[in-house]
Structure formats: C-alpha cells, structure tokens
Write a structure and sequence with these properties.
α1 packs across α7 (about 175-190) and α5 packs antiparallel against α6. The protein is globular and about 70 Å long. The protein contains 8 helices and 9 strands. It is of the alpha/beta class. The chain has a domain at about 5-35 and about 100-205: Rossmann fold (3-Layer(aba) Sandwich). It has helices at about 20-30, 60-70, 90-95, 105-115, 130-140, 150-160, 175-190, 195-210, and strands at about 10-15, 35, 40, 55-60, 75-80, 80-85, 100-105, 120-125, 170-175. The longest helix is centred in the last third of the chain and has 16 residues, at about 175-190. It binds guanosine-5'-monophosphate (5GP). Guanosine-5'-monophosphate (5GP) binds near residues 17, 77, 106 and 108.
Length: about 210
Amino acid sequence: MSEATAPPVCFVLSAPSGAGKTTLAHAVLPKLPEIARTVSWTTRNPRRGERDGVDYTFVTQDAFDEHQAAGGFLESAVVHGNSYGTPASEIERIQADGHDALMVIDVQGAEAVRTRLAAAVTIFVLPPSRKVLEDRLGGRDGADPANEETIHQRLGVAAEEIAQFVRYDYLVINDDFDRAVRELEAILIAERCKRRQRTHEASEILESFR
Ligand code: 5GP
C-alpha cells in the first residue's frame, strides 16, 4: 500500500440478537467484494449449519483466555454467558488484502473498537418492535433450541443494547428486509466514497491532467 492510499475503513455492525444483522451482512457482503467480514472467536457451541473458521472460529475457554492474555484481540466481550472476540490478526489479514473490514459484534465490543479505532464507522440495526424481536428469537434454530427462559433473557439484554443506539453513526431499521439491505449497502458505499478515502485515486486522475 503506498503512502497516498487511504487507510482501510473499519465498519462495526451491532444489533440485539435476533434483529437480523448477520442475515443483513450475508445479503450485502456478496455485492461488495472490497469489504470482508472479520471472523470472531467464540466459546459457544456451533449452531446447526455454522462452519468453523467461516461463521466463527469455535474455541475452548482456555484457548480464548490464552489468546486474550497474549493481547490477541482487538476487542472481546462476554455475551449471553459466552466469550466472543475479534482477533487483531483478522483486521490485519483483511487490510493486507487491501479490503475494508466489517465487524459484526455486540455493543460492548463496539465501544471498545471506538476507543481503539476512532475512525471506525458504526452502524446499529434496530428491530421494528419488541414483538417482532420476540417472534424472531422464538423461531431461531440450533443446537440449543430457544426456550422461554432464553428468549426472556435475550429480550432483557436487547432492551439494554437498544438503549446504546445513540452511540452509533448510522441506524438501520430492519422492518422491510429489502429496504434494510439497500440502506446498509448505501451506508457502506457512501463511506467508501468519502473524499479522504479517494485521495489516492483522485491524485492519479489529477496526475493524468499534467
Ligand atoms: P451469536 O451467538 O448469536 O452468534 O452472537 C451473540 C452476540 O455476540 C451477537 O450480538 C454478536 O454480534 C456478538 N458477537 C459476535 N462476535 C463477536 C465479537 O467478536 N465480539 C463481540 N464483542 N461480540 C460479538
């Protein structure tokens, strides 16, 4: 990367569980090959269909703690009783490929990223209502079927997380899914079009006028 090249953008996408942020990210990222999602480490068990090293890197608590003690995470948090973290090496891998990074992480992680990467662009996804979130949580499949208590617990956490939306740069309301996809895509594209991100390309064009 030359000195004139803009630093890659680090995007953070947060939402309460069940608000649809992972589905949104999966719908948008194939359209934007220059943005890559960081693969987090987690100590939770894989859900049905999740692949190790693709959806998450599934690790033991010991392995997680060891990596954390060695300073290997850009950020980490305990969410619903499990540990999650973004390895710093993920950002390095994505940046080395010349891409921008998208972290799909919780509100605690987002706060840690803000502290460490002031230029990070943060996006919050809101469910349209508590009722819709409750229905979506009830319909979630996996190794650990969502029971009443889990749903109740997740709704409580969701209420606390939703209160954090004021800390984010952008807000997407996931009511109409197609519209939410368009909005998220528009945010990612607009940030990549900012002048400071384009200085390198602009200087090459200016050079051709000399
Ligand atoms: P799930 O277990 O449902 O995939 O994720 C639970 C929560 O953990 C979600 O809010 C998800 O965004 C968040 N999460 C996933 N990876 C990370 C991570 O690396 N760091 C943090 N702080 N949160 C994460």
